[in-house]
Write a structure and sequence with these properties.
coiled coil; 7 helices; 86% helix; PMF1 protein; mainly alpha; 0% strand
Amino acid sequence: MDMVEDSEVVQEADSTLPLRAALSHIFGKIGDSVSQEQFAECQNFLRLQLPESKFTSTVHKLHGKIRQDLQEMMNKELDEMMAEESLTSGLNKIKQLLMETPYSPGEIVWRPPGDVALHVRSFDVCKIQEEIDRLTPLVDDLENENNNLVKSLLKKRQKRQILANKIAKSTKIGTNYIAKQEKSKERIQKYVNEYDEQIDTE
């Protein structure tokens, strides 16, 4: 039983080693980011108070001490962070997933879009594409049918307009003809009346 527990501890420790090594390397770069020369340029007060030889040795000690304290502080925080069970458990899960994944390290795989609605919808991409492929011909047929209906409607409207123009023209001609006939009737009636009057006088 003790051997099993020891192996689990070793496994958990091993899962944090790559992260610890990477962070320690980064911490080292942070500590080296300010050189001793750059540090000395900021110590004008000490430069005025100390002779040059004493100033150089003092700056060297201060720079080393600050770098050491910074490194120890960052490593201490790293140890505290690594001591959290949730982090160790999470790293173990990631390690297990990496071992089980069928993808190669350089292969680009699907990632959640970050938006909940898009994330949920992304699982149905294949189904959505199938529906799009199925509905696209139907939509095209409806659009063609609508275009044909529009063309047919335009033709009917043109025919109706032509017929309306003909009716209006015929009505105008008929109205003028009736007016002429009325005038002709009035003239004829006038002639008839005059003729009747002449006969009566004779």
